[in-house]
Amino acid sequence: MKKYLQTTEEVLRELNSQRDGLSAGEAAKRLEENGKNKLTEAKKDSLAVRLFNQLKDPMIIILIVAAIISGITAVYSGESFADVIIIMAVVVINSVLGVFQESKAEKAIEALQAISAATSKVMRDGKILEIKSEDLVIGDVIMLEAGDSIPADARILESASLKIEEAALTGESVPVDKVIIALNLGDQKDISLGDRKNMVYMGSAVVYGRGTATVVATGMDTEVGKIADAITQAKENQTPLQIKLNQLSKVLSWLVLGICVFIFAISLIRLYLGDGITGTGVLNTFMIAVSLAVAAIPEGLAAVVTIVLSIGVTNMSKKKAVIRKLTAVETLGCTQVICSDKTGTLTQNKMTVVEYFGWDPQFLGRAVALCNDAYLNDDNKAEGEPTEAALVNYGYSHGLNKGEMEAKTCRVGEAPFDSGRKLMSTIHKLENGFFEQYTKGAPDVLVSRCTTYWDGEIQQIMTDEKRQEISYANKEMAGQALRVLSGAFRSWDAMPKEQTPDYLEKDLCFIGLTGMIDPIRPEVKDAIKECKEAGIRTVMITGDHPDTATAIAKQLDIITDTDEAITGAQLDDISDEQLGKDIGKYSVYARVQPEHKVRIVKAWQNQGMIVAMTGDGVNDAPSIKTADIGIGMGITGTDVTKNVADMVLADDNFATIVNAVREGRRIYGNIRKAIQFLLSSNLSEVLSIFIATLMGFTILLPVHLLWINLITDSFPAIALGLEKEEANSMKQPPREAKEGIFSRGLGFDVIWQGVMVTVVTITAYFVGHFMEAGVWEIAESADGITMAFLTLSMAEMFHSLNMRSRRQSIFRMQHQNHALYLAMLASLVLTTAVIFIPPIAAAFEFEPISLTEYFTAMGLAFSVIPIVETVKFFQRRMESK
Ligand code: ATP
Question: Where are the transmembrane segments (predicted)?
Fold first, then answer.
């Protein structure tokens, strides 16, 4: 029978479950029988398909065509197949690396998704446990509260004003009020999903209230499971940098095509004027054009960027910053304003009541402990949300055991807490049959709803004087950075007709105030100082009282003056336009509603600022979405905010945001280093071929360029991506979000460094020819080619060392880059091997060179280090001016 037509008792009986849940053993058995509560994911492409996809790359197509043409000529002319073999080997290595690189990036993202996997609160063996949502089974009793994603299809057992947003399933964006009673078909055949008011469905979210429900369907048997046979993972978007690089690659490809046609034409004219057009002649010319294409297209670029980004993301998650969207890594480095919650992010969220105001601490303890969702565990320590737990502990310190009190005066109704209203109320049935309501919350809100106060014996009329006295006590505590919460009560002869906040939260009797200390996180002060040095503004946004907020902000050096603080009420009085003008004045926003956060983010963004914003509650989702970097809280955050966040802090800590910004800057900086390295290398190759062709000699064969580009260049480029941060990385202002790849002198550096390597390479060619033939002349030279190859590879290798920093001297680096040293060694060994191991050397058409020639080539290659050091020296001087 359909569960929504049954009563809760019938449903539980049918599912062989009960209100306090399944036993752990039974749950394990059911999990074994029915499988995990997961939707099946779309099948991944097979290895063959992935490899085949790699072959679609234009560069690879050019290479395959080149290999085919070389193959055909080899057959007809009887020459060796060495070229074909080498080209095909490069194609294969490149494709395998491509697949490897993609799957590494994918694995990194998958691992992150596993870390941020959803959990649910469930009753097992009568205790509340937090388990992975995928381990839920039919019959489990789950606890639901505002901000939770619904983990499976379930029948509601208890509902305290539960409101569920089911837009994903029904398209209806207005949250639905949920009930417990069995539904009635009436004359309908069935009830549509949106009208099943006693059910909750996987994929929807709790926006208000609290409740429990028993799971009736899991995994693919849920309603969403039925709609979608398989969920296709949303494709990871490319980061802005990756998009710009793709555009660059396109431009380069066209450019290359142009140059190739040009060179091909020139060479054909030469042939025509010289020996006449022959098959071998045309083939050679074609191969030159191919070698140019190979030289100019930076094949390794996309791979290096993906690898560096995915390694970076993995490192960040180890440091507690879990990136959910790859684009965030880049944006982090541009962050100019960080808007942070106070409680739990700047402070430890370890609350202890240290002050009290009122005339009856016992009664206050009773009210705030009963109007409360935290509970005492077996060791009589409170567990639950820290503010609430502190109040339960406070009650216990006055001899009041929450569990025992609740057994006598059980909760029969409630209006749950929400951060907009800043109040919470519960209704309790007393032993004498009457009802008593307890309300707790922000004093400024609560006191305005009190018409009487409790003097310790009876209710007295609330006077203006009393209000002032309370307000004074509140201010006194808040000024000491204490979080102040007040308690009140209201008596009822019978159960209140309604349980809405409006109906309950008036005509209250004030009982007292509690002042809680919430120590600041010790590492935060330094992190804020670091932000200042890095040109990043820290802004505190809190639901707490302005006095508490300013006191804490002063301790943290966020503000020096009270003028820099503003309240939500004051914000309501100023226009968006005015806020835009004044936004720079305020660093503390107190007693704000979640809606204000969106206004604050937008005001900063309108000033052209890149804003990071933290959030935990269900109502914070819009501001997290609006911010350039939305940050969710791993510990206290709700599923709803985490799901829209770009980054989740595993430890809720502000200092972790600052670390992530530092990582973002480092990763972006390193990618730029790798780009500069690869582009200047490619440029030097193009220029060398171009100049040699114009002058009429062959400097390098296509296979030589292939080897350098794909084998000896790639490792140092990746190693540059692993470079540690530079000493001054957090002493500089954030980079412009809109800056292009070539900004800040990178374009200029690529050009002059490309020219530099070209000059040493061509010099090596002529020196090689001179050492072989004893004359300086333009002529075809086997030694020249070998030396040019050696010099070009080694100059690039030494240049990778230069690129450890774009401006600092490499002799003053604070850290070592062992990966780079290893990559350089590998390049050195491989290049030497290609030249000196006879069969390989023969395949590459290298002439054995003497040791003198070898070291001369090395010396020429090494010259790039002193040259770049000298230029950097002048660049530093110019930039410091
Ligand atoms: P932040 O926004 O920095 O996390 P916050 O924790 O004070 O600060 P909210 O959780 O929105 O922000 O709380 C706003 C106010 O509501 C608090 O200052 C407090 O007065 C009141 N409040 C907080 N928790 C409760 C609760 N469980 N019951 C009743 N009132 C509460």
Answer: 60-78, 84-100, 251-273, 285-311, 675-699, 742-766, 819-842, 854-874
Does 96 reside within a domain?
no
Q: Indicate if the pLDDT at residue 709 is higher than 90.
A: no
Q: Read out DSSP for 611-628?
A: EEEEE-SGGGHHHHHHSS
pTM score, whole prediction: 0.83
Split at pLDDT 50, 70, 90, the class of 232 is very low
Please give the residue that has the higher pLDDT: either 336 or 697.
336
Burial readout 801-830 (b: 16 or more C-beta within 10 A, e: otherwise): bbbbbbeeeeeebeeebebbeebbebbeeb
Check residue 230 and give its pLDDT: 45
Residues of the domain holding 604? 323-347+522-659
Instruction: Give the separation between CA 379 and CA 739, rounded to whole angstroms.
Output: 58
Pocket of ligand 1, beta carbon within 6 A: 341-343, 387-388, 417, 419, 422-424, 440-442, 485, 542-544
Q: Give the chain's largest Cα–Cα span.
A: 118
CATH classification of the domain holding 650: 3.40.50.1000
Of the three residues 489, 517, 545, the one that is the final residue of a domain is 517
From the list 341, 518, 544, 616, the catalytic residue is 341
Same structural domain for residues 564 and 465? no
Q: Greater confidence, 769 or 89?
A: 769
Write out pLDDT tens, residues 67-125. Answer: 887 788 778 777 677 778 877 887 887 788 778 777 776 776 676 666 656 889 999 98
